[in-house]
Automatic annotation (TrEMBL):
The keyword Membrane is assigned to this record: yes
Natural source organism: Geobacillus thermodenitrificans
Keywords: Membrane, Transmembrane, Transmembrane helix
Protein name per the record: Branched-chain amino acid ABC transporter substrate-binding protein
Phylogenetic lineage: Bacteria, Bacillati, Bacillota, Bacilli, Bacillales
Transmembrane portions of the chain: 20-37, 49-69, 81-102, 108-131
C-alpha cells in the first residue's frame, strides 16, 4: 500500500480541517454566549471552554504570523519594522498607563503595572515576528 501524495487531496484535507475548526469555534462561542447570558461574565470565565477558546485563538494567531510574514513585501528591513513596532507599542502602553492612573479608584502604581503588562504582552509577538522575518531574510540570502 502506497501513501497518497496528491496535492489536491492534501488541499482538500486542509479545507476540511478549516471547516471543522470553524464549526468548533462557532460551537464554543455559542456555548460561551449562552453561559454569559445565563450566568454572567464570571460564569463564562469559569467555564473550561473559555480556556480552550483563548488557547486555540492564541495558537492560531501565532501560526498565522508565520504565513503572513512569508508572503509580505520586502519594502523595509526586519530591524526597521521591529523598531517601528516597538515605538508604537511603547506609546500605546504609555497612554494606557496614563489613562489608567487618571481613572477613579486607580493609583499611579496601577497605571505603571497595567502599562508594563500591556508592554510585555506586546513585546512577545513583536519579537516573534522579528525572529520570523530574520529567519526568512537569512533563507533568501
Amino acid at each position: 500500500m502506497q501513501k497518497i501524495k496528491d496535492e489536491r487531496l492534501l488541499l482538500k484535507n486542509l479545507q476540511n480541517l478549516r471547516i471543522a475548526y470553524m464549526l468548533q469555534t462557532i460551537g464554543i462561542i455559542g456555548i460561551l454566549g449562552y453561559v454569559f447570558i445565563t450566568k454572567g461574565l464570571d460564569g463564562m470565565r469559569k467555564n473550561p471552554l473559555w480556556f480552550v477558546f483563548i488557547l486555540t485563538t492564541v495558537v492560531s494567531a501565532f501560526l498565522s504570523m508565520n504565513i503572513s510574514v512569508e508572503y509580505e513585501s520586502r519594502k523595509r528591513s526586519s530591524k526597521q519594522s521591529f523598531l517601528i513596532s516597538l515605538v508604537v507599542l511603547t506609546l500605546i502602553s504609555t497612554i494606557i498607563g496614563i489613562l489608567t492612573s487618571f481613572t477613579e479608584g486607580f493609583t499611579a502604581m496601577n497605571g505603571v503595572f497595567i502599562a508594563g503588562i500591556v508592554f510585555l504582552c506586546g513585546v512577545v509577538p513583536i519579537s516573534y515576528v522579528y525572529y520570523l522575518r530574520k529567519k526568512i531574510d537569512n533563507q533568501a540570502d
